[in-house]
Known about the structure:
Elements: E1 2-4, E2 16-20, E3 23-29, E4 36-38, H1 40-50, E5 52-54, E6 59-62, E7 68-76, E8 81-82, E9 85-86, E10 90-93, E11 130-133, H2 135-138, E12 143-147, E13 152-156, H3 163-166
Parallel strand pairs: 3-11, 4-10
Antiparallel strand pairs: 1-13, 2-3, 4-11, 5-7, 6-7, 7-10, 8-9, 12-13
Amino acid sequence: MTFPLDKDMGLSQTGMKIDVGGKPVYVAFSLARAESVVTATGGRWIADVHGGRFNGDAREAPILYEIPRPIRRLELDRPLMLGDLEIRNLAVRVSDMGNSQGIPDGAAPDQDLDEIVVTGDSKRKVPTQRLYIGLDTIGHCASLTHDFKAGTVTLMCPKQPSAAATG
């Protein structure tokens, strides 16, 4: 799978940009973490688009520079895909410069078909949202190659094992 390289995150976190409900989330690969982690606002966007809710309590996890930050596991009704790969074990930073408020907690509620939801856009600039994809998603891949001259990032992966097989 080859994706266009997006250098907006800088060379140390180079990856690509994905569209989540019309909003950009910058993606980088982490060979140092098992689970994938997204910033708070990015987690809210993913939850809104993919039917997500928190599952479990907040816990501390090392983020950049090994500084522990609170995260919570995000369970999705519809998988978040990167090409043919399902992004697994997604956690949301619940305390950063964004806002994870509004992500439902616990089991999926019965939907009220008469419910009307109204949303609005703020005029302030939203900080860049980042998603770091961990080894639970890419650990079975044979290679990850950044080609700066061609402007691409390529993952060479066999078919992804089922989520049940990986635990």
